[in-house]
From TrEMBL:
PANTHER family: HYPOXIA-INDUCIBLE FACTOR 1 ALPHA INHIBITOR-RELATED, HYPOXIA-INDUCIBLE FACTOR 1-ALPHA INHIBITOR. Residues 126-273 form the JmjC domain. It holds the Pfam family Cupin_8. It comes from the Eukaryota. It comes from Lophium mytilinum. InterPro entries: Cupin_8 (IPR041667), JmjC_dom (IPR003347). SUPFAM superfamilies: Clavaminate synthase-like. This is Clavaminate synthase-like protein.
Amino acid sequence: SRFRPVDILDILNIESFRTSHFNLGVPALLRNQFRHIPAISRWFNPYPSKPGFHQLNAAYLEPHGSVIVPLELTRATHPLSDSIPDDAEYHSQTFQRFEAPLSVFLAASSSPHASPGNLYLAQCSLDSLPLPLQADLPTPDVILKVGKGDLYANSLWLGRPPTRTPLHRDPNPNIFVQLAGQKVVRLLEPEIGRAVYERSRSANGHANIRGQEMMEGQEMERLEDAVWGENGETKGWEAILGSGDGLFIPKGWWHSVRSFGDGISGSVNWWFR
């Protein structure tokens, strides 16, 4: 494969992690190191008969249904798949971003009926959530101790697979934690990712912003082809995350994310220094 596995750390020693990966700017998969985050057991239930996948515990979240959250609605011309999505599923999409009560997302995500589009609660700042939900997502010690202890920002991501975030980079180190379901992340070193992005971008594109041009149209298709297309030549790293896993993404590393499987996918990330 043109994407090599990210280093896996089954035991997280902060001093060792700082020396071996954080200071060197090398990605690492922190296997099962975040399984004690309260949201994992409170917000989600295991998906019946499908190990590794989850359903949303809507009853726990419904009392907070009036809080306003950012949502993205993606409509695709291709049917959804329960396996790792192939490139065709992400072409010919329309994309709309808006804000709405959390109850809108809960209703759509809990419905047994097929939807004409996929609703994704994306890039929701934890600070905008009610205090009880914030308490379910405490900042992990490694984020507070491995660097300067400066927390730059954070985001919550919830949606039915398949969801995606096209190739982009972050201005700060990032620890991305999978709460429920599974996601695959492909990473490119800074100089390689920059070259891929420059070949694909539109005139109005921005490498750090989840903008309209990144989420639909020709720029999105070119970015997806470069990273996920069967005939792509780009080489990089890959990590598959399950519940309780975390991925360290160094500053400036380009990455693209896809969820797959059944039920609900939930993630949270912290940008820090």
